[in-house]
């Protein structure tokens, strides 16, 4: 008999992710799973999002890295509850790792949990963690061919932030090609062009996230 190990791992993970989701639903905590390749701007976006929305929502962060706690220290400086997960080599977060952090947060006093996944355009998209929405970043220096090369992440995400638009002129980023190929994979994908350096375009992202959290907490959307 041929055993499909990968399917079994994903099934087991889905079960745990669904348990996490049920827990977050009960606590009315909106959870985003933020993914990108290393250096695309995840932590910078998390910092900007905290600064923009902290008056309105109670926010906490999970930082996922293979090792070290550099990103968590950046978040801690903003006085936001943060737990660092060190995957010890694994290139993605999974449901179990998220569950392990539960003791570190006061979920009764939270509206938004942002999880920064390990930098990688491949397997983070395969492992659910109990999120309401997958959000991904593609930065302009990475090139406009990435949707075609890494279709799963673009297919699974609700929002694509094209970051570092301030660098676009220097790296010849083809916005039309990126948009078209991303929408060919996922016609529902919301795309925002932003710069976390100049803040250009970030308002639309904050508005999307605010509306998504409010809609979830009003019971109009279930994870
Ligand atoms: N020019 C430019 N640099 C950015 C932008 N966003 C982030 N960076 C820089 O890109 C580098 C990686 O950002 P970081 O947030 O740590 O990326 P992460 O690895 O995805 O978490 C840092 O030096 C940031 O300051 C942007 O919009 N424009
Ligand atoms: Mg980071
Ligand atoms: Zn992985």
What's the helix and strand layout?
Layout: H1 5-27, E1 30-35, H2 42-53, E2 59-65, H3 70-76, E3 82-86, H4 95-100, E4 112-116, E5 133-139, H5 146-149, H6 151-156, E6 159-163, H7 168-171, H8 175-185, E7 190-193, H9 202-217
The chain binds guanosine-5'-diphosphate (GDP), magnesium ion (MG) and zinc ion.
Magnesium ion binds next to helix 2.
Task: Describe the fold and architecture.
- The chain is of the alpha/beta class and 223 residues long.
- The protein has helices at 5-27, 42-53, 70-76, 95-100, 146-149, 151-156, 168-171, 175-185, 202-217; strands at residues 30-35, 59-65, 82-86, 112-116, 133-139, 159-163, 190-193.
- It has one domain (5-217): P-loop containing nucleotide triphosphate hydrolases (Rossmann fold).
- It is built from 9 helices and 7 strands.
- It has a 7-stranded parallel sheet.
- The mean pLDDT is 96.
- Bound molecules: guanosine-5'-diphosphate, magnesium ion (MG) and zinc ion (ZN).
- Residues 36, 38-44, 119, 163-164, 166-167, 195-197 line the site of guanosine-5'-diphosphate (GDP).
């Amino acid at each position: 008999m041929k055993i499909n190990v990968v399917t079994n791992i994903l099934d087991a993970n889905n079960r745990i992710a669904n348990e996490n989701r049920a827990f977050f639903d009960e606590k009315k905590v909106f959870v985003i799973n933020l993914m990108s390749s290393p250096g695309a701007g995840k932590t910078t976006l998390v910092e900007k999002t905290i600064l923009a929305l902290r008056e309105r929502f109670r926010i906490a962060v999970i930082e996922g890295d293979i090792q070290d706690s550099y990103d968590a220290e950046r978040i801690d400086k903003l006085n936001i509850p943060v737990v660092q997960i060190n995957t010890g080599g694994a290139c993605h977060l999974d449901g179990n790792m998220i569950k392990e952090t539960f003791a570190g947060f006061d979920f009764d006093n939270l509206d938004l949990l942002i999880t920064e996944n390990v930098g990688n355009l491949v397997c983070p998209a395969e492992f659910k963690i109990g999120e309401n929405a997958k959000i991904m970043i593609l930065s302009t220096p990475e090139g406009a061919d990435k949707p075609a090369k890494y279709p799963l992440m673009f297919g699974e995400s609700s929002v694509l932030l094209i970051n570092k638009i301030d660098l676009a002129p220097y790296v010849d980023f083809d916005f039309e090609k990126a948009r078209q190929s991303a929408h060919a994979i996922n016609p529902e994908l919301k795309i925002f062009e932003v710069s976390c350096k100049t803040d250009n375009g970030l308002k639309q992202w904050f508005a999307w996230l605010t509306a998504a959290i409010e809609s979830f907490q009003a019971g109009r959307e279930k994870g």
